[in-house]
Each structure stands twice: as C-alpha cells, then as structure tokens.
C-alpha cells in the first residue's frame, strides 16, 4: 500500500476531477439550477399515448377516418343520465339537443352526433335512462387537451333534468396525465425521506448519507431538462417521468454507495483522501462506468421499437443513467476530496451502539467487512448443487403464471374506479347494447360503384366471426364499413377476424382499424423487432462482461442468471394484474390482460438493473481472483465485500419503485411493484445464492478463455483492480503462483510503476 506520506500517484481522470473541486461543485450547482428552469413544465408537454405502431395499417386507417369521417372516430363522449325519466322524455330530449348544439358550436370540435339526433340504438342504454353525445376533437394530443379543458367544465354536471359525465379517449388520456403528475409528486415525497433514512442506516454518517441523495437529485433534474428538450422534436410519454425518478434516485444512489463505500474503505486503511480517491476511481469508478454502460444498453434496446411509449423510456433511461454516472464520477470525488475524513461525521447511530467500541464499529462498517456474508458464501459453496437447483427451481416455479399471459390494449381501466372517464366507459360497457369499443372499421379507398360496395359488404358479412356490418358511408373515393364481431373486443376471435378482413378480396384498397386491429399490429411490431432488441442486449452484455472478467463462461452465466432472476416478476405480473388477485388490496381494476408493451419495458429495465448488481459483484470477485488466484476465496470475498452493499442498494431502489407503485394508474403500479420485486429477487436470491453456487460448480474453469480472446482482453479489458498483478494469478495466468491472500496492498497502476496506460477506452478512468 502506498505510504501515507508518499505523494499519491494520480491518473489523468483523478487529476481532472480533483484539480478544482470547489469550482467543479459550483459549476454543477449552476448547471443544476439551469436544469430546474429548463425542465420546468415538462409534464405538461408529455403525452399519455404511444402504444400504437405509427407505421401500422390500423394507424393509417385511423388517421384517414379521422380526416375524412370524423364522426366514425369519436374521442369525446358525454354520458347523459336522465335519472328516473326516460331519455325519450320531451324535456330530456330538449336539454340534450341544446347540449349537442352547444358542443357543436365549439372551436376544434367536429363530427358531433347524439342519440336524440340519430336515434341509433347503440347510443341508448338498455334501461332507457342513459344516452350518449359523441364528438371528435381535432388536433394533436396537446390541442385536444386544450379543447377539453375549455369545453368540459361547462358541459359536465347537472343541466335541468339531466346529469352529464365526460368520457372518451381524450378524457381518459387527460385524466391519466393529471393523475400521473399528482402520483409522481406523492411518490417523491414518500421516497426521499425513506431513502435518506435507509442511507443513514447503511452509512451511519449523515454526511455520507446525503451524498448519494444529492447525486440522485442532480440526475433527476438534469433528465427532466433533457426530456423537455426532446419534446421539441418528438413525442415523449408522461409515463417516462416515473422511470426518471426511479432510476435517477436508484442508480445514482447505487453508484454513490459503491464509490463512497470504497472511499471509506481506503480511508480506514490509513490512506490520505487524495490517495483514497485515486484508488476509488481506479476501482469502484471503473465499475460504475461499466455498470452504467450495461444499464444504458439494456434501455437503448427499446429504441428498436416504433411505439413512442417504449422509445420514451429509452430516452429518459439513457439520459438519467449517464447523468447519474457522470455526477458520481465527477461531482462525488470533488465532494469527497473536500470532505476528507469528515465524510464519517455526524454518526447518528452512536446512541444505539451496544457491546462494541464506536471506533471499532465504524472501522468495520467503513472497511466493508461483513462476516455474516462470508459465512453465507461459505455455506452456499459447501452445498452448491443444492442451492443451485433449489433456487433455479423456485424461480422457474414463480414464473409459470406467465405462460398464461393474454395481451391487450391500454384503456380506461388503467384509471381508478372512481375516475370520471372510467365511470363513463364502464357504464357504456355494462349498460349499452352491442359491443361498445369492439367494432372494427374497414376503410375502402379507390373509386367503386354501389354494387361493388354491396358485394363486398355481403362477403364480409358471411365471415363466421361477424355479428353484423353497417355501412358503407361514402365520401368521394373513400368509404368505410363498421364490422361488429360476435365476441369480445380483443379476444382471439376478434384478432382472427382482423386477418380475415385484411385478406378478403375487394375491388378497392382496404385498411382495417379498431381495438383488435391495433392490438394485432402492436403484437406484430413487437414480435418482429424483439429478436433484434434481445440480440442487442445479449451481444453487448456478453462483450462488456467479457471485458470486465476476461472469461468466456461468466458472460454466458450473467445473461442466463439475469434472465432467470426476472421470472418471478413476470409470473407476479400475470397472477396479480391480469388475473386480478390482490386487486382489492392494491386498488386497481383488472382488464384481464397485460398491455402489450409492458413486458418489453419491464424486461429492459429489470435486466439492466440486474446487470448493475451483477457488475458490482463480479468486479470485486475478479479483483480478488487477480490478487490471489484462489477461485473459492475470490467468490467468498466478493460476496462478503458487496453482499451488504448490493442488498442495501436493492432495498433502497425497491423503496423508490414501491413509491412509484402507489400510483393510481394500473400500468405505473405494475411497473413500480414488478420491478421492485425483480430487484429484490435478484439481490437477495440470485446474487446471494445462485451466483456463488454456480461459480463454485464451474470452479476455475469459470475463468477460461481461448488464447486469442485472452490477448484481446489483455489489451482492452478492464477489472475493478485495473490490472492483473505482475506475475499474478489472474484468469489468463492461472499457472502463476498467487500472491498472499492476506495482502491488503492497493492494486498497482497498469504499468507497475505509477505510469498510466490510457488505451482501451474504459481504462481512461483512473
């Protein structure tokens, strides 16, 4: 170890981040203040849709119908309740007609119709006490929201003999945006104080606990500014703000935990603050950078998909991961250098210590020693076959419900049962005839004669899944038919009917849209691109883990075990949110299906977080194996040093995700609670039991690599220690005699003489 009085050997990155620490923090403060200004009002510019493929046939048909036949695509519905009177009562009819005329006179409203004007039986409830006024609000999502804000207050409520509630797609999305913003503010109020309390419990020192929280806040504010900028060029989903908060706090705290813990370990060995920072950046700093890359790659895979709902999470996730890593690698070292040994100040646990001197407890906590984790590692490796088989079997068993997954589309049932737009849609589902919202529209383009339209209508009416066909309504060279399926709106039969309608012969061009058609197109868009997204994640993960470890087997293990760790999450999602178990306790309405994009989103986020913890553990195992050449001791040491840290980080991230999961919007609740479960299962089951058991079974073969790959890793690879010790027993030098397992030397620089080797990209952080 470098002597205390010796001048520290500083790499280029250490010199950069510690040269002007006060200036660095001042610049960060100014940039954060600018981010607050730039990101203000971002929630008002975010959309609540984005589940459809913009290039799909159904999307084209929907837009064409909105343009040519706006009455066919009503997005605003007024539920008119006549109380004990009939909707055909003259007084009720007169008031309803007045409301219809008033709505039709509003700017931005077209295609207004009502039961009282059309006498359509589909617009009248079966009990005769409710009926509908339908309209189409024009413009993009922001324009329709503005129109709704202008017209809805005057329409809802009691008007003479009737009471009006506002519903429809526009109202559902508007209410969803409002609720998400309110829920996010509440989640932050829950997560921040609980997170601070947990950090104090982890570090003891209030000063050390505040550092990760500060890094998280910087990352969140910076990402809000990035999202605000992106809204100028593309659509961004309001749901992405939840991910920004969760990952901003969670990952920033993870990275800061890892760096602060290593810094305190170095101080505990007697190193001066500058030397401790140099060693920390050379070790933990590299691991943080590596971890950030793996998480960013997992999130970037969502850019493969065309839905802006998924792409929004990629934008937000990549931004917050990179900002969290940058803050942890630039601002945090500057703060630690200024604090020095004062990072251990304000020990709030000193009043509760019993049985050990405070100084001894502080040293143990700072140095990362945890005999309980060492004992667990020893037990797991002693009974490795049992733990490997038992944990794998339990994870597979927990994932079995996912085999019964049913995919659907997001609708009003995402909202709380008492939300006005949800109430309107539920009344329509339960009380109106036919299959509201389940009809399919067939857009016909091209000149045709009445006889040709009639022949086509007769042909599709003969399809076995068709209950009836209305139309055509003709305008110029365009027309549309409404096809009513016999079953549910998005069941298997309705989806099959979409394919039959699209393949039916016609003397003109046809396009099919409707709820089932949107679902079919969304499933196709995801299925066709899923192999590319999976390949991106797997290939880059294999490469990054190889660069970290120099092993061929460990990257394969990492991918397989990470995927296995997600089974409990997917099983729980189906059992709870699709099948409706615990719906009363958790306060949501189950639609009987899972929105198509949610599993993709949850996989990318949870897989990235699993790799985050995997990198923390593997880097410490690799560092110890390079130092000693003892495989079993390296695994035991790695779990001893990182087990408590990973568990603490997972619990903190789970708290943040559970706070997000308190949302009243079902998709957000599913996202928060599902990922919280995945994170806890990964940290407490996979990293603590399955990984050490599997590594014990594979033994020293774990570190094998063919000669060409060994040479590649020697040149470009990276480990937490930064190098294989000269003549040491790293994975590519297993025949060399190991260094003493009791040595606590700080790893040497790459060249063994204090000089730096900046080749290989990731080696630049020193």
Commentary on this structure:
The chain has 766 residues and is α+β, with helices and mostly antiparallel strands. It has helices spanning 12-18, 21-39, 57-68, 90-104, 115-118, 141-155, 169-203, 206-230, 240-268, 273-300, 308-339, 358-367, 371-382, 384-399, 420-431, 450-461, 492-503, 515-549, 553-565, 567-578, 583-586, 598-628, 631-661, 666-698, 707-716, and strands spanning 76-81, 109-114, 130-137, 157-159, 162-167, 407-408, 440-445, 466-475, 478-485, 509-514, 594-595. The strands form 3 sheets. A 5-stranded antiparallel β-sheet has the order 2-3-1-5-4, with helices on both faces. It has a 4-stranded antiparallel β-sheet with strand order 8-9-7-10, sandwiched between helices. Strands 6-11 form a two-stranded parallel sheet. The longest helix is centred in the N-terminal third of the chain and has 35 residues, at 169-203. It is elongated. Residues 1-8, 355-368 and 720-766 have low confidence and may be disordered.
Which features does this protein show?
single chain; 766 residues; alpha+beta; five-stranded antiparallel sheet; four-stranded antiparallel sheet; disordered N terminus; disordered C terminus
Give a brief outline of the structure.
61% of the residues lie in helices and 8% in strands.
């Amino acid at each position: 170890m470098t002597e205390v009085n010796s001048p520290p050997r500083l790499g280029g990155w250490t010199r950069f981040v510690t040269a002007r620490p006060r200036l660095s923090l001042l610049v960060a403060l100014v940039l954060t203040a600018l981010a607050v200004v730039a990101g203000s009002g971002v929630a008002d510019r975010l959309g609540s849709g984005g589940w459809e493929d913009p290039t799909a046939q159904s999307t084209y048909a929907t837009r064409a119908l909105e343009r040519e036949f706006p009455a066919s695509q009503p997005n605003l519905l007024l539920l008119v309740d006549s109380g004990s009177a009939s909707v055909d009562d003259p007084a009720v009819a007169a008031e309803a007609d007045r409301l219809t005329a008033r709505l039709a006179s509003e700017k931005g409203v077209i295609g207004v119709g009502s039961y009282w004007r059309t006498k359509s039986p589909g617009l009248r409830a079966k009990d005769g006490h409710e009926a509908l006024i339908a309209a189409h609000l024009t413009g993009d999502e922001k324009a329709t929201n503005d129109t709704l804000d202008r017209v809805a207050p005057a329409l809802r409520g009691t008007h003479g003999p009737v009471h009006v509630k506002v519903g429809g797609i526009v109202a559902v999305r508007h209410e969803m945006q409002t609720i998400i913003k309110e829920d996010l503010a509440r989640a932050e109020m829950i997560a921040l104080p609980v997170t601070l309390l947990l950090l104090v419990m982890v570090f003891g020192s209030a000063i050390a606990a505040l550092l990760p929280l500060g890094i998280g806040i910087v990352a969140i504010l910076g990402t809000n500014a990035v999202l605000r900028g992106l809204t100028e060029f593309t659509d961004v989903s309001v749901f992405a703000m939840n991910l920004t908060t969760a990952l901003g706090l969670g990952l920033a705290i993870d990275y800061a935990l890892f760096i602060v813990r290593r810094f305190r370990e170095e101080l505990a060995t007697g190193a001066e603050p500058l030397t401790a920072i140099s060693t920390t950046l050379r070790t933990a700093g590299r691991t943080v950078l590596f971890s950030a890359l793996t998480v960013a790659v997992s999130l970037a895979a969502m850019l493969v998909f065309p839905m802006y709902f998924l792409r929004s999470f990629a934008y937000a996730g990549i931004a917050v991961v990179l900002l969290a890593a940058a803050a942890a690698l630039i601002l945090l070292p500057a703060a630690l250098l200024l604090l020095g040994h004062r990072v251990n100040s304000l020990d709030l646990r000193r009043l509760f210590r019993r049985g050990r001197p405070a100084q001894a407890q502080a040293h143990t906590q700072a140095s990362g020693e945890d005999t309980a984790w060492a004992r667990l590692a020893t037990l797991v490796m002693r009974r490795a076959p049992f733990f490997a088989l038992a944990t794998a079997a339990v994870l597979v068993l927990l994932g079995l419900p996912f085999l019964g997954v049913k995919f659907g589309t997001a609708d009003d049932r995402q909202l709380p049962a008492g939300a006005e737009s949800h109430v309107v849609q539920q009344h329509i589902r339960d009380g109106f005839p036919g299959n509201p919202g389940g009809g399919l529209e067939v857009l016909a383009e091209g000149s045709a004669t009445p006889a040709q339209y009639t022949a086509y209508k007769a042909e599709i009416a003969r399809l076995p899944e068709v209950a009836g066909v209305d139309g055509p309504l003709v305008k110029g060279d365009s027309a549309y038919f409404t096809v009513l399926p016999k079953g549910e709106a998005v069941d298997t039969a309705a989806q099959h009917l979409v394919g039959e309608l699209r393949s039916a012969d016609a003397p003109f061009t046809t396009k099919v849209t409707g709820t089932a058609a949107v679902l079919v197109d969304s499933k196709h868009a995801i299925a066709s691109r899923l192999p590319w997204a999976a390949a991106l994640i797997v290939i880059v993960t294999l490469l990054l883990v190889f660069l970290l470890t120099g092993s061929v087997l460990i990257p394969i293990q990492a991918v397989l075990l990470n995927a296995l760790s997600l089974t409990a999450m997917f099983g729980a999602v189906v059992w709870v949110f699709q099948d409706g178990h615990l719906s009363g306790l958790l306060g949501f309405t189950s639609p009987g299906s899972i929105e198509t994009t949610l599993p993709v989103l949850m996989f990318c986020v949870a897989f990235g977080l699993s790799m985050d913890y995997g990198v923390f553990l593997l880097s410490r195992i690799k560092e110890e194996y390079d130092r000693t050449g003892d495989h079993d001791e390296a695994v035991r040491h790695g779990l001893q040093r990182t087990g408590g840290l990973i568990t603490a980080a997972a619990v903190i991230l789970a708290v943040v995700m559970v706070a997000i999961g308190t949302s009243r919007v079902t998709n957000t609740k599913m996202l928060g609670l599902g990922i919280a479960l995945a994170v806890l299962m990964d940290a407490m089951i996979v990293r603590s039991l399955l990984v050490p058991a599997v590594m014990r079974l594979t033994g020293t073969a774990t570190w094998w690599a063919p000669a060409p790959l060994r040479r590649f890793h020697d040149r470009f690879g990276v480990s937490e220690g930064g190098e294989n010790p000269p003549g040491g027993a790293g994975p590519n030098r297993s025949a060399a005699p190991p260094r003493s397992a009791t040595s606590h030397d700080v790893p040497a620089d790459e060249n063994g003489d204090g000089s730096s080797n900046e080749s290989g990209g990731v080696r630049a952080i020193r």
